[in-house]
Amino acid sequence: MAIKFNNEILTAALIGFEKQKADLSARIAELKQMLGGGAKEPAAKAAVPARKRRKLSAAGRKAISEAAKRRWALKRTEAAKPQRAAKKA
What we know:
This protein is mainly α. The protein has one domain. The mean pLDDT is 83.
């Protein structure tokens, strides 16, 4: 059974492997420095494009805030209720 890869999957795999390669290079440089041989400074990190931060509208922030306040209010009311002791028969 042949597996078909599209460009999106291949690009994601490439980005992941490049990140792993950068992490390994940094670890190797640290180990070389510990052994006394090699560069005195850790290897520079490979330039990985930063993800764009998504913007949240004021209405979205307000909705999240109100939902959190409702959850905490419910939790406080549940905590304030007296616990009933179980009767032994």
